[in-house]
Amino acid sequence: MKIATYNVNGIRSRLPNLIEWLERESPDIACLQELKAVDTGFPIGAINDAGYGALWAGQASWNGVAVLAKGVDPVESRRGLPGDEKDTQSRYLEAAAHGVLVGCLYLPNGNPWPGPKFEYKLAWFERFIRHAKGLLDSGHPVVLAGDYNVVPTDEDIYDPKGWRRDALLQPESREAYARLLAQGWTDALRTIHPEERIYTFWDYFRQHWPRNRGLRIDHLLLSPDLAKRLADANVDRWVRDQPKASDHAPVWVELGKPARKRAPAKKTATARKPA
């Protein structure tokens, strides 16, 4: 099974790129972020024509998340992150498909730092950590996929010194991500590529894409049962090289089939010797 996450940075303007990626890479489940479109503007017709069912939570001009599933309609389990009824930003959508529960998230950027946007980022992160713990404790196979807007370590960015004042690298952001992992989640991309400088985002400034000056901020976290099935993970860099591309590239994991449960061994009767 292949599960992917992709910040499309505007689904209407990137629709040709999205459809080409779906047709070429054929993920079983795809989580999308930054739709930047209201619900009625979601291109469900084109998504269906590509062979996918979908759930989405849109928002005008900003945010927006979606879960796509190949050949089936994903079953919604939660819309919006719990813990703050006043938070109306479309940043979290949870659904079941192909035997897996997927949490699709677009964690707040937090810039400029310091300031209220950074405080909102940390508060949202705390709510997410609490919810993630509940998902882990449920025992269901879970993937938390999306744009976390966190660079976990200095090995996940081309130039940590030049970004020290950015919200993505602040100690509080990194510490929250580390606490999330400590619950028992597996960072799939880093597990498969433990030593490689592998990036998922390259901004549009100063030729950062051609020069491979990137950041790793899109992550797929696996619950322990799925971590045992992790077979591969990587970044579809070719998508970032397309005309009018998003500044993110899709990131994916491949999971092997679950291990078959062995039937209990039958007890054989043994003859008793006469006394």
UniProtKB/TrEMBL annotation:
Pfam family for this entry, one: Exo_endo_phos
Keyword Hydrolase in annotation: yes
Protein name: Exodeoxyribonuclease-3
Assigned keywords, A-Z: Hydrolase, Magnesium, Metal-binding
Record-annotated Endonuclease/exonuclease/phosphatase domain positions: 4-248
EC id: 3.1.11.2
InterPro entries with a match to the protein in the record: AP_endonuc_1, AP_endonuclease_F1_CS, Endo/exonu/phosph_ase_sf, Endo/exonuclease/phosphatase, ExoIII-like
SUPFAM superfamilies: DNase I-like
Needed cofactors: Mg(2+); Mn(2+)
A GO MF term: double-stranded DNA 3'-5' DNA exonuclease activity
Family to which this protein belongs: Belongs to the DNA repair enzymes AP/ExoA family.
Highest taxon in the source lineage: Bacteria
UniProt keyword Iron, yes or no: no
Enzyme class: hydrolase
Annotated source species: Luteibacter jiangsuensis
